[in-house]
Inverse folding.
């Protein structure tokens, strides 16, 4: 029997056509009593029906299955086609009621089919298709597929249905054969570096490799009776079920979960899943790799990262204490009016170095906090302009030193809900960057505005060394310094670590804002922006 031909060609349309003409004829016949149709019209319909039945007969004779029409309580009313070949009983056996179709359904399938039938009649579903086994008169079991659809409700309020039944034994055999065939050769499967599995939509296993038996501790016999979800527990079970669902819907997925062996041993695995369709039936095939080593390494790395962070935070605090006099004392000395210009310059350099070192320590501390995800904001509503002005005046001596022109265009009366210390750090870094990366006599423009979406936007534009497109990704990264970019006259910036923008970005992100920059390229200046929401949601 040519299976594919049968599956491709189901006689529904043709049957439906005949049925429709029949229905019209029935209706017309009823109406003739009420004199709504003339005799001639009825005759015409009768002729049409005969023609159609003729065509239908030719079709049925060539159809390798059974066609039926009936109603719920007596579905065997009308049976044609290859009845005898398929069941061993004649059409007459069924139409006379000597044997009922239900009586030849394989007992194990009967309950499932009866339930499906009940559901079909009790819901508005119009079509249904079922696969089940029947027992041939000669005792042999055959698989059939039944397609059924509702036609209309007759005068006695009976649901008239029509359908066809085809023999799919060969297809089922092919499926079974596939389950047993070596589509995947054992030797290949056993040489895989992990566990291999192939299961159907219900999670029932078709194939697995030796590794699967070894890792799980179950015998092949046991595995054949288990479902894939039996190998997972708790949260993982639900997660794996979702990933499997994803494979059947989208075609592929991956997952990480603990694979549980017979003795209860948990092994972390990385799983892959691919939808494989064989004989129209979808399966999931894939592999699981033991990732215990990787997990251990990850844990070690996390531990050493934590040790590193702990060291940095202790060290930076230790460094900060001696800085207090280094920054404090020059301040006092500078108040002495008897100093020469040269002495003042020296003292200033000490002060700048100290401040720079202090800033570096703050940056390192903040970075470790960001990495440990322990940075927190203490926000309050405040006017932004005083904050900007104080950051500018803290750095005014550097601008003066470089002979930078500073232009300010600040929108008045803007209040923001922010952590002032953290936002100060962002402002200071952006202003200091503009100073550092702008040659002597350059221009720095600082502006603020409110955009149409009610966001506060700060921008700082310089006409300095600019940022090349190829370096654009680097600037917001940790330790992201552009090589050879420093041409500033600001002699004391060698402490720059490349952490400033990394930290600034985190701080702005924590405030629910965004930070970005624009530059036409090398030596064409740079504008940095950040945006903060005016009101917290
Ligand atoms: P730190 O801020 O930690 O002291 P840094 O200023 O080098 O050091 P970031 O503020 O993160 O680090 O800036 C990263 C890099 O981006 C800088 O090293 C510089 O190469 C580039 N950059 C930043 N701002 C500008 C600017 N205004 N013009 C040109 N390049 C800039
Ligand atoms: Mg910086």
């Amino acid at each position: 029997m040519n299976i594919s031909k049968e599956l491709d060609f189901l006689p529904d349309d043709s049957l439906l056509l005949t049925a429709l003409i029949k229905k019209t004829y029935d209706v017309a016949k009823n109406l003739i009593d009420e004199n709504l149709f003339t005799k001639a019209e009825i005759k015409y319909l009768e002729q049409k029906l005969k023609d159609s039945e003729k065509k239908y007969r030719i079709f049925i004779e060539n159809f390798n299955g059974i066609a039926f029409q009936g109603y719920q309580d007596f579905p065997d009313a009308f049976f044609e086609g290859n009845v005898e070949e398929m069941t061993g009983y004649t059409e007459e056996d069924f139409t006379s009621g000597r044997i009922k179709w239900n009586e030849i359904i394989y007992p194990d399938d009967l309950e499932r089919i009866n339930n499906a039938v009940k559901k079909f009649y009790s819901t508005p579903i119009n079509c249904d298709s079922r696969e089940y086994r029947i027992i041939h008169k000669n005792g042999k079991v055959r698989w059939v597929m039944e397609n059924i659809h509702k036609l209309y409700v007759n005068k006695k309020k009976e649901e008239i249905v029509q359908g066809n039944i085809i023999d799919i034994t060969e297809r089922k055999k092919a499926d079974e054969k596939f389950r047993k065939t070596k589509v995947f050769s054992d030797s290949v499967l056993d040489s895989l570096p992990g566990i291999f599995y192939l299961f159907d939509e219900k999670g029932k296993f078709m194939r697995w490799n030796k590794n699967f038996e070894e890792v799980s501790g179950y015998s092949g016999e046991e595995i054949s009776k288990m479902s894939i979800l039996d190998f997972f527990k708790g949260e993982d079970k639900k997660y794996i079920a979702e990933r499997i669902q994803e494979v059947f819907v989208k075609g592929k997925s991956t997952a990480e979960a603990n694979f549980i062996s017979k003795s209860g041993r948990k092994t972390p695995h990385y799983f892959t899943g691919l939808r494989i369709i064989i004989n129209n039936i979808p399966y999931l095939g894939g592999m699981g790799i033991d990732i215990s080593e990787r997990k251990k390494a990850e844990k070690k790395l996390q531990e050493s990262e934590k040790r590193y962070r702990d060291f940095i935070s202790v060290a930076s605090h230790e460094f900060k204490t001696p800085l207090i006099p280094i920054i404090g004392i020059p301040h006092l000395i500078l108040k002495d009016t008897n100093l020469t210009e040269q002495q003042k310059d020296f003292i200033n350099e000490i002060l700048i170095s100290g401040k720079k070192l202090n800033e570096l320590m703050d940056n390192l501390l903040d970075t470790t906090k960001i990495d440990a995800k322990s940075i927190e904001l203490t926000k309050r509503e405040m006017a932004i302009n005083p904050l900007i002005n104080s950051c500018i005046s803290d750095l005014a001596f550097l601008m003066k030193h470089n002979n930078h022109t500073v232009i300010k265009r600040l929108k008045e009366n803007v209040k923001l809900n922010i952590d002032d210390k953290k936002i100060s750090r962002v402002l200071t870094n952006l202003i200091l960057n503009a100073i550092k990366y702008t040659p002597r006599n350059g221009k720095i423009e600082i502006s603020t505005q409110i955009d149409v979406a009610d966001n506060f936007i700060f921008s700082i534009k310089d006409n300095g060394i600019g940022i090349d497109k190829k370096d654009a990704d680097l600037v917001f990264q940790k330790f992201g310094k552009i090589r050879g970019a420093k041409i500033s006259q600001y002699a004391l910036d060698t402490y720059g670590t490349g952490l400033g923008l990394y930290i600034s970005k985190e701080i702005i992100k924590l405030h629910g804002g965004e930070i970005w920059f624009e530059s036409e390229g090398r030596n064409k200046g740079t504008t940095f922006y950040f945006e903060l929401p005016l009101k917290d949601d």
Residues 363, 429, 433-434, 437, 462, 464-467, 475, 480-482, 485, 496-502, 526 surround adenosine-5'-triphosphate (ligand 1) (CB under 6 Å). The domain at 3-166 is CATH 3.30.450.20 (Beta-Lactamase). The chain has a mean pLDDT of 82.
